[in-house]
Amino acid sequence: MEQLKDTIISEPLRLFDIKVFNPEDFTELLVRLALNLLVIFIVVNFIYSKNSNRKDFYFSYFAISITIFVMCFLLESVKLELGFALGLFAIFGIIRYRTDPIPIKEMTYLFVIIGISVVNALSNKKVSYTELIFTNTIIVALMWILEKILMLKQEICLVISYENIENINIQKKEKLYNDIQQRTGIKVKRIEVQEINYLRDVAKLRVYHDLKGIDGNSNTF
């Protein structure tokens, strides 16, 4: 009788053959989720925003990260780890071409966010927390190095309608560059002529320049 009583007490409470509360799994969820949110916060707040001067992707990055992490963690038992992860990248790759254009850098950070969330959620019991933390640290460090140490200049494009069509001449290249630089106040790197309308005396130009000027300030309008 006492043995039966001990067995009943040791058995976790179930509802429709599903455990109502599993302390071990719940603790693991909290630890992994906290680690994932910490890493995402560092990448988004201290690396991405500090170098891009943009905050319009904050909500998207955090929402996607949390959703992907929870979805992967709860579906881990389905044994779709690798295929599921690759499927997520394929889905977002398709979305990339069927929605409004997203800047390449923002899309790259999106894939990094998804990758971090998938790794933190789907790493199995064979991967220790030390290895998991080390992997996240390496990713954060590499992102910081690419943004800071290597000083990769971010080049952006400005599309303008230019009315001084007489300057659209290979022999007047320097005059064209100086005119646009004087008007916009930005250091022009190169100019591409997309369209010339001689009837209206207007040309459509793509002006490429660095995101940040020599003084470190943003060149964006």
SSE string, helices as H and strands as E:
HEEHHHHHEHEE
Q: Enumerate how many helices there are, as a single number.
A: 7
Query: What percentage of the residues does DSSP assign to strands (E)?
Result: 5-15%
| Shape category | elongated
List how many beta strands DSSP finds. 5
Which runs of at least 5 residues are low in confidence (pLDDT < 50)? Answer: 1-9
Number of domains: 2
Average pLDDT score: 79
Q: What percent of residues adopt helix (DSSP H or I)?
A: 55-70%
Rg from Cα? 26 Å
End-to-end Cα distance, whole Å, is: 79 Å
| Structural class designation | alpha+beta
3D architecture notes:
Helix 2 (23-52) runs antiparallel to helix 5 (104-122) and helix 4 runs antiparallel to helix 5 (104-122). The termini are far apart. The chain is an alpha+beta fold and 221 residues long. It folds into two domains: 2-149, no CATH class; 155-210. A three-stranded antiparallel β-sheet has the order 3-5-4, covered by helices on one side. It has helices spanning 2-10, 23-52, 58-74, 81-98, 104-122, 129-149, 173-184, and strands spanning 14-15, 18-19, 155-162, 188-197, 202-210.
Give keywords.
221 residues, alpha+beta, 2 domains, two-stranded antiparallel sheet, 14% strand, disordered N terminus
